[in-house]
Every structure is written in C-alpha cells, then in structure tokens.
Request: fold
Amino acid sequence: MEENDWIKRLEQLHFSAVHVCHYSSNPGAVQRRIWKRFAICRVIAGKGSLSMDNIVHTVSQDEWFLLKPGMYVEFQTDMEAPVRYQIILFSCVTLTRRRNTWHTEAFDLPVTGKLHIPSNTRDIQEMMDTLVSGKYSITSLEKTRRKHLLHQLLIQLMMHLKEATPVVAGMDLALEYMTHQYMEDIRIDQIARMAGLSVNHFIRTFKRQLNMTPIEYILKLRMAKAKQLLFSSDKIKEIAEQVGYKDEHYFSRVFKKNEGIAPTLYMKNKVNRIATLYYGLDDYVITLGLRPVSALSYGQRVDRHVAIPALQTHSHQGIILDSFNQNYDDLRRVQPDLIITSDRLEPNDSLHRIAPTTTLEYTNHFGERLLYMADIMGRTEQAVQWIEQHAELSRVLRGRIQSRWGKQSAMFIRVTSHFYRMYGLNNQTGALLYDDLGFYLPRDFPEQQWAVESKVRDLQLYDADHVFVMVDPTEEARAQLRQLQQSSAWLALKAVQVGHVYNAGDIFFKTLGPTGRMWAMRYVAEQLGVTLR
Reply:
C-alpha cells in the first residue's frame, strides 16, 4: 500500500473499544495464545523473545510491538530479567462514506511485529505515558479522549516508522536467519557471528531467552516441517532433503528419537487427532473411519441444515468452528496432531503454530482425493469401499432417472443478496448433477466456466428441464427470490411452467464431502420421484 493510501486509511479509523493494561511476567514464563484484538505494546524492562506467526523477535527495554487479530503469539520471558510491559488493546474499523451512506470495512495495519522506532521520539513516549497513566475515568467523555489519543499515537507510530531505517542486527538477525534457513547446513559459529557474540555467549543468551539451545530450535523447526510434509505423496528421501538432511536414514533416526516413531509410520499410527478447517473435509476423515476433533460448520450459510445419519454416528469428539468467526484458541485447546485445510480458505500462518498443517487443493474427483488421503493414513480399505458404493449408487440412480424422465437437462441456481448464480460442470453441484446422476447442461451454458452470474432477463439463455434453487439465509436473498419468482423471465422457464423447480436445501455444502455427496444423490433423486425402494 502506498504511503498516502495507508495514511488515509488511518485517518478513517473508528475505535469501538480501548483497554490499557500493565503486565509483569514471571521469570522464565511462557505464554501462548491466538491474538483477538489489535495491540500496541511497549517494553518497560526485562528481556525475552516474542514469536508472532513463526517470526521470532528478541524483546528488550524500550522496544515497541504491533499485533493484529488472528496472530499466533508465543511469549517467553528471561529467567534473570523478567519482562514488564504496557499494552493497549483496541478494536477498530475504517469508516467511509459513499453515495451519502456510511460503510464500515475491516482494517489491516500496514506493518506488524517489532517496530523500528527512532530513539528520539519523545512525543510518542509521552502519548503512551498519558494513555497508560490511569488518569482517565469511565465517563463517556474520557473514553472519547482516550480513543482520540490512541488514534493520534497510531498515526505517529506509522509516521515515525516510515522515517526510521529498520536495522535487523544481533540476536534478531540470527533468529531471522535460523527461522528461514533451517533447512540449510547451519553452523553455530556462523550465527553467533551474526549476533555479534562468542559461541558460548550466544548459546547461553539464546537458551536464556528462548528456553532451548540453538540446535534444539533448528530441530524443532525441521521436525514441524517434516510432519507437515509427511501428509503428502513425497518419498522419505525427498522430505529429508527438504528439511535439511542429506541422508534419509539419519533423518529417520532423528525423527524417531524426537517423535517416538519412524516417519514412515507417523501418519498411519500416531496421527489420530485430526482437525478439519473447510466444509466437507470432516466428511472425508469420517468416511475413512476416523473422528475429526474439529469441523467447520456451514449452519449459518443455509436456512436449514439436515443431519446425515452416517456422519452423526461418528459425531465430532471436539469442536464445531464458526465459519464466520473462527476461534483458533479453541482449536489449540483440543490439541490436534494434524490440521487439514483447503486452498479455498484464506491462508493463516498461525495454524502451523498449533499443529502441522496441510492445505489440500480443491477437487471434484472425490475418489482420487479419498485414495490419496487413505494411502497416507493407512485407510485404503475404507476408501475403496466408498468408491465401490458410490459407483453402484450412481449406476442405479442414473438408470432410474433416465427410465422415468429420459435424457434431461438440469440447472443449479443460487440466490444471494446481490446476484443470481448458475453453476456449471466444474464444481461440486456439477459433479452431482451431471457426473453422478446423468443430467446434461442447458445448451448455451459455457462448459468451461464453473459458474455464471446472471441478471433475471438472461435466465432463458440457460433454460433447463429441471431447476434446483438454493437461497442464502438472509432477508435480502429472500427478497431477491420473490423478485425472481414474480419476473416474466422466470415464469417463462419451462421448468417453472411444468412444476420442475425444487428446493436444493443444503446440498451445495453437503456435496463437498464423499458421504454427503451420496446423501445428496438420493435427495435429488427423491425430489424427482425416484427412490431406491
């Protein structure tokens, strides 16, 4: 973001809450948490280390840090010089006016982490002192003054930050190098020179600040990455090389000594507590005979969620995460061995600090994905069983649908607050309707597009024999549906005229998982008057 842009964004800030705290940590204490608010922190005294989303910083007197929501933070204080610090916690949004209407948007800071602030910034120091001095009462006026002063402090911090030259030196330079180059052949004397210390002094200082030796820190990084890579089709030799070991046998010995099990057996025998962080991934895990410790709920995205008995039997042992407000503190408490997420979810580096995290690429080829996961986890029998059952169900339902209806076209429409979207071949509803059940796309639908957003007047371009409609659970979406149903374009569709319009329910989300997909196949068939009985 250009300087003028972020200054303008800062000027548009609206603060909803501000809290000021003073902390004195215990010698050697370690604190871990997912950060929930923005925070400005100034260190008053002491030493330690602060890790934010895998970036480790040393902590010492008169240093400033800026944190944002969603960060995984691990704070380690020195045994001999415990840290005392001041912290301002705040929540804010940007407030903008467009077409005579005020709009709020989420705010993101232009920088986070350790702030390289010049030492001669007395104005900033005085602002912070005033904010944390405790002068303010709880009156509305004083709360407003506090928010105004915080706003000015934040702007000044950013302005001074631009003027400062960020110099990474000493222990911070050594830590940064180790964190990003752990897969290289790192020598202790090399990183000690980076820190400007003798080898013995460097090792003592490192252990005092991080509660582990430099070698133990590098090993920790290598093992975390190795456990993530083991959820892949990579050979052990390739994984060993990626984490810094030229000899795969030596890597295996180190891994077994550290984890208590050989890397070839780790995924199959030790990974039992699996957290899933996208719709349908919990279904994959359950289909393979395991019980996920977390799942992402889509209950808020549909009007009515219908439970699938086959999945309910293996009810989640852990937590159901809110898809709109994911609480990674709860996820950390269930202590997963592995986190599986999707490339459709915005990446979050803090997940790697909770457990090894693997990101699966989205696919409609459920059989291939299931076999891939099953091979890694030693669950091939369960995957083959699903593939056989799915193929047989598809064969039976395709035959019965065609016997009753002949060769017919179908369309899946989603009604949202802002648009009507028709889904094509290259998505989960396309796999359901066209691959599993044998319908075909309306003639003029562009086959290569996964979906098309359309205006009401364009609906006749994609006229189908059967239409399945999903409506988002908002008043605006329901109003859009009423508008659609009253339009001449809708009433002219052949599916509408003969009564072949069906409630799609929550199959849009159910079809993201293998067991849910088979349930959706039966659901669609029943809507068409076709059953297995």
In short: The two ends are 61 Å apart (CA to CA). The longest strand covers residues 84-98. Residues 380-405 form the longest helix (26 residues).
